Every structure is written in C-alpha cells, then in structure tokens.
C-alpha cells in the first residue's frame, strides 16, 4: 500500500499544489484522488479520508489520516529522511521551517485579495496597502533566507526544500495578478515558473475541467509568462506516430500536432496537458526525440 493524497482543483487550490509538490519534488510514491471545489464530489471524496474536511489530506500506508500541509511535510520528512524535504544543515533547516510556518499562518491580505488562479494573468490589478505590505515582507524574508544560508541555487535555503514548496503558490499569485516585487524576489518567482513540476501542475490545471466562477475577476488579461513556445494544437484525427499513450501505455484515441508531427494519447486529459506545455513532460519529450 502506498500513500493516498486528496486534492482539489489544480488551477485554484493553492494548498493542493503544496501537498502534491511534497510528493512530486521528493520522489515519494503516491496515489491521488481529485475532486472539484464547490461540488458534491468534494465532500464525497473526503469521506475516504475521514475525519478530514479540507485538502490536501494524506492517508499513510498504515492508514493514518494527516491533514494540513505543514503536518504532512513534517511527517513525510520523518518517514523519508533520504528525501531531504528539509535542509540537512541544522541552521538552514531552522530557517526553512520558519519560512514555511510564516507562510502557513500569514500573508492574509495577499491570499484574500489574490486567490490563486493559474489559468490567467492579469495586467491591471491594483494592490491595496495591505497587499503591498505583504509583498515587502516576502522580499525581506526571501532575501534574508538566501543570505543566511549562502544559497547558490535559485531556491531559498540551498537545494529545493519544503520552504520552496510553501511559496510556490505565492509565485503563482505574483505572476497571476501582475504584482511588482524586487529583482531578487522576481528571480525567485521565475525559478518556480520554470520548474518542471510546477509547469506540469499548471498544464494539468489548464485542462482540469471548466473555469470555476468563484475565481473570476474583471481585470485585463495578459499572457502567462514562461508559457510554452512550442507549436502545439489539438486535432481530431490521426494517424499518429505512436500507437500507445506515452503516459498510460494504453491505445491512442486522441490526437495532437506538436512541432509539426502528430502524436496520440489515451484521453483528452493526457492530450490537453501535453499541448499546454510539451516540454514539461519527460515521457512525451522522449517520444518527441525519437
């Protein structure tokens, strides 16, 4: 038996992104359950994870139900020390834990005014004084963490850690609402936008059901930075170069033209996530390289 992870909409659920990254970035095997927020399917899904009420929630291989992202991070770190979810250096680990805890409990103005929506990027959102204050605080703690840990990577405390997991949705909010931050903070945001796991999550979120009306805002739209530059589009018919889906190994039924070549997939979701960002998917890129 492996871990079982309950998640909500990929495009909108910031806490689900954190929960998923804790497994994806640290190579911990997991099976996922998804249900759309504000749907009857959501409480139905959580019955399997009782007494949990929110996502992410994990059921461990021994049947223990764990809710709250910070608790999940700590429990996974205890059970999988080889994964290095937190920095091994005690000082760096303390800084990373402090960063994650502040994110878990703080930045209420930013989170309330800018709910995560990875399907759009707005160009004319005007942040309030309270949101600006949260942004300045992010600049301070991000810069301080890199200085204190002497980080030589794009990440806060050296190698990618749970601290970076917790700030991934903040990066999505900053780009999604066109928020202005210092050059050093923007470089950190860009590191998330370029990260393959982050890109895979967003690509899935773009085709993960219809838009959620709750998250719609009447601001002008702009292109999502770091969007794929590869030519890709869905098409109705094959034949495709491949007979089996690069992800499931099942026979192809849906088709896409990518870089002028036709490829097949086992369903609309596999095709859609690939068309959004082909280079984010190693299995597909191996097929493209053949």
TrEMBL record:
InterPro entries xrefs: Glutathione-S-Trfase_C_sf, Glutathione_S-Trfase_N, Thioredoxin-like_sf
CDD domains, per database record: GST_C_3
Domain GST N-terminal, first and last residues per copy: 3-84
UniProt cross-references to Pfam families, sorted A to Z: GST_N_2
GO terms under biological process: glutathione metabolic process; L-phenylalanine catabolic process
PANTHER family xref list: MALEYLACETOACETATE ISOMERASE (PTHR42673:SF4)
The protein's name in its UniProt record: Glutathione S-transferase
């Amino acid at each position: 038996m492996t871990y079982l992870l309950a998640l909500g909409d990929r495009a909108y659920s910031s806490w689900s992104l954190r929960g998923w990254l804790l497994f994806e970035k640290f190579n911990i095997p997991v099976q996922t359950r998804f249900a759309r927020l504000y749907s009857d399917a959501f409480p139905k899904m959580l019955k399997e994870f009782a007494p949990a009420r929110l996502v992410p929630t994990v059921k461990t291989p021994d049947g223990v139900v764990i809710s709250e992202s910070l608790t999940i991070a700590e429990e996974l770190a205890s059970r999988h020390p080889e994964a290095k979810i937190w920095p091994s250096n005690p000082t760096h680990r303390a800084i990373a834990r402090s960063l994650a805890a502040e994110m878990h409990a703080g930045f209420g103005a930013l989170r309330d005014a800018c709910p995560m929506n990875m399907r759009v990027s707005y160009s004319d959102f005007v942040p309030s004084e309270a949101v600006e204050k949260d942004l300045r605080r992010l600049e301070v703690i991000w810069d301080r963490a890199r200085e204190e840990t002497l980080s030589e990577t794009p990440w806060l405390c050296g190698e990618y850690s749970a601290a970076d997991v917790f700030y991934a949705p903040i990066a999505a909010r900053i780009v999604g609402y066109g928020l202005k931050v210092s050059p050093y903070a923007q470089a950190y945001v860009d590191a998330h936008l370029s990260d393959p796991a982050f890109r895979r999550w967003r690509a899935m979120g773009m085709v993960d059901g219809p838009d959620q009306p709750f998250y719609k805002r009447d601001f002008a739209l702009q292109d999502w930075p770091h969007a794929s530059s590869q030519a890709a589009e869905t098409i109705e018919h094959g034949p495709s170069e491949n007979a089996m889906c690069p992800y499931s190994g099942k026979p192809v039924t849906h088709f896409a033209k990518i870089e002028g070549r036709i490829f097949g997939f086992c369903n609309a979701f596999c095709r859609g996530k690939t068309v959004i960002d082909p280079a984010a998917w190693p299995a597909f890129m191996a097929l493209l390289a053949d």
